[in-house]
Amino acid sequence: MNPIVDRINNFFKEFDEIEKLNVDAHNRLSYIDTELSKCYHKIEGTSITHISQSHKLIKELKSILEKRRHIKLETIVLRSACDQLRDKIGAVKGSHRKALI
To answer: Which of 1, 57, 61, 77 has the fewest CB within 10 Å, making it most exposed?
Structure first.
């Protein structure tokens, strides 16, 4: 086929892959939010008698929050790109198909 048409089709495929990454990032964010909630409940239910207990809980919470921050950044970037392009890509795909016919 035509190299330009191939490049356009590859662009559409890339966007579909970015959409999948967006869904995956939201799923990972949901999972880490569940982990965060579990950690909060664990902290609430723990009767702290030694500093070492609180230190261990804080380290666990910090690890979860760092992961969440990273995933949250990914979701913001992906959501922004996908939301801006989704409707436009649909219209471009439609006109591309018409042009090929």
So the answer is: 1
Cα(90)–Cα(56) distance, rounded to whole angstroms? 50
CA 61 to chain centre: 20
Q: Which of 61, 82, 67, 80 is nearest to 29 (CA)?
A: 67
The residues, any chain, with a CB within 8 Å of residue 14's CB and separated by 6 or more, are none
Please tell me the distance from the alpha carbon of residue 82 to that of residue 71, in angstroms, as a whole number: 16
Q: State how far the Cα of 65 lies from the Cα of 2, in Å rounded to an integer.
A: 49
Q: How confident is the model at residue 90 (pLDDT cuts 50, 70, 90)?
A: confident
Q: How far is CA 54 from the centre of its chain?
A: 31
Q: Which is more confidently placed, 101 or 60? A: 60
Q: Which helix (H) or strand (E) holds 77?
A: helix 51-100
